[in-house]
Amino acid sequence: MSYIRVLFGFSTFFLLLMVGAVGYCGPGVPNDDLPKREFRGAWIATVVNIDWPSANNLSTAEQKQELIRHLDNHQRAGINAILLQIRPSADAFYAKSSEPWSRFLTGKPGQAPVPFYDPLEFAINEAHKRGMELHAWINPYRATFDLVTANTTSDHITRVKPSWFFTYGGKKLFNPGIPEVRRYIVGVVMNVVRNYDIDGIHFDDYFYPYPVGGKPIPDTETFKQYPNGFKNIADWRRNNVDLLIQMISDSVHHEKKYMKFGVSPFGIWDNKKDHPDGSASSGLSGYRQLYADALKWLKEGWVDYINPQIYFPFGHPAAPYEVLADWWAKHTYGRHLYIGHAAYRATENGAGWRDRSQIPKQVRYARKHAGARGSIYYSAKHITDNLVGLRDSLQYDLYRYKSLPPTMPWLDSIAPEPPFGLLAQVAENGTSVILQWQPGLPSADGEEPYGYVVYRFNEGEPLDVENPQNILYITYDSTQMQYTDNMTRKNGHYRYVVTAIDRLKNESLPSNARELYIE
């Protein structure tokens, strides 16, 4: 390990470089223009303690400390959205739930954390403090992670309603063909939407189960009971999933118009050899094997973003990254595309992954060629642990300037009114600058500001709020109308403006500008 001290503008910081971590390009290396708006997410997986908590016997204080460590590291890396797994298997990482506490939280199913706290509430507050969105990641159909009776409570839904489930691959899964199942899952989701200040609902790729040893899915009797007008069981299964996606979308958006709903399907929708609209690939198909017709969800406008898990390198023989990224980009139907990147594979030595800059190259490709509106990384610990220098690549290169999530005009296109009365004064220490402002009037749709963006410009620079290099600070706290800029120096000449943002990150015009010279 080697430490390099780097002088950058007006600040001095310590940059930790992992020797041989070629994923990190280093300061001064020419790169693409960085977008002001980009979804920069990371999955925090809780199932079997993949990311957090790292063990199921940690104290409340240790759980909080671990989560804060993840969030702090992700904030430094430029991540602006966290996708927290709150329901890994019909259980809960949140207090206001009719389902039992998860055993992955406390080690025992149904046992609340001691001392008591609400992990989801805590995560939301801590994420928002750091200018990050918090999306509730829910597994809709997985009901157990194994078949051990002791790992479920007596009131677990698999015991209360055993007819709602089938067993496949060593797990119990909700049967999507049963209408009551769909209504139950919608109820679970809406309970979270109504009771928590989340920014979005997120489903992953687990719909019908991944094939195991060629074994058939045991749902033929359900097909006979609820055919819903279908003759073909594959079409029927896809329709069952479609019905849930549509119900979730309608319910979520009716309850809270700013709520985002996104799905992270398998990286291949379908292969061209099997479907004329498919991609030039030859791997497992989400459409055929998982019965997830993500293309339909986009066409119908049921999802606000699609986040395909393109966990393959450039030039992969069955699923080339570049082919799949371009294919999804051509099939968004006006919704957002965020690429899912396999951070967990960054140390592999298979073809493509021996290039330790594989993921940074994927991000650049998605920006320039596929036109993706962002990236999400699986999973959090690989960012926190700086696997092959990936966090360095994000922090000091790809995400070196702050960003706002992309707007979603189909949900809300009305910007807030600008703040006014911006004041700037030099602090008692003679170098810091204290800014204060007043909130603007409610916007045309009656909304109050949700947060603010502070911009700083050096002498001679235009007041360009579209350049992310000028973003000094982002807050999601509408009551915070003061900010202290400690990144200033003697003889510095600065200008400041502030904008307001609403819940969907629509941005106002700038406030009045304030200019000052620090002697």
Give a written overview of the molecule.
- This protein has an 8-stranded parallel β-barrel with strand order 3-4-5-8-9-10-11-12, surrounded by 5 helices.
- Helix content is 25%, strand content 20%.
- It is globular and about 80 Å long.
- It has 2 domains: 397 residues, Glycosidases (TIM Barrel, Alpha-Beta Barrel), CATH 3.20.20; 98 residues, Sandwich (Immunoglobulin-like).
- It is of the alpha/beta class and 519 residues long.
- Helix 1 runs parallel beside helix 3 and helix 5 runs parallel beside helix 7.
- It contains 13 helices and 19 strands.
- The N terminus is likely disordered.
| Apparent shape | globular
User: How many helices?
Assistant: 13
Largest sheet: 8 strands, parallel, barrel
Compute the average pLDDT: 93
CATH architecture group name of the largest domain: Alpha-Beta Barrel
Helix content: 10-25%
Low-confidence runs of at least 5 consecutive residues: 1-31
Number of domains: 2
Specify Rg, calculated over alpha carbons. Answer: 24 Å
Strand tally is 19
CATH classification class of the largest domain: Alpha Beta
The third-level CATH topology of the largest domain is TIM Barrel
How much of the sequence lies in strands comes to: 15-25%
Lateral strand order in the biggest sheet: 3-4-5-8-9-10-11-12
Structural class: alpha/beta
